[in-house]
Amino acid sequence: HLMATTIPNCISYDPTYSYExxxxxxxxxKRMFEDxxxxxxxxxxxxxxxxxxxxxxxxxxxxxxxxxxxxVSTKKARARVQLMSAGTIMREVEAAxxxx
Length: 100
Description:
- The chain is built from 3 helices and 2 strands; from the N terminus they run βαβαα.
- The longest helix has 17 residues, at 18-34.
- The model has no long low-confidence stretch (mean pLDDT 88).
- Helices cover 33% and strands 8% of the residues.
- β1 (10-13), α1 (18-34) and β2 (40-43) form a beta-alpha-beta unit.
- By secondary structure, it is mainly alpha-helical.
- It has a two-stranded parallel sheet.
- The chain has helices at 18-34, 60-65, 90-99, and strands at residues 10-13, 40-43.
């Protein structure tokens, strides 16, 4: 994906969940075919077998921007950690969040 950033009209994504992929494809089809924007999409997908959660409400814009809060902690603490991830490593980051 780092190399894809050198191509101005390449839009790249590394989705983790099926709802992210569906949102990206839907937005991409609209942008390329309805809006006739001169872009193409580079999407990395993996074949790991895991349960895909339902899509949280109101995150479509965040998915397209490339960043959205998957979970927000309700714990009150002096120190706070923000974990960021994408693609196949997301499952490990979710496990780390439980530990932290």
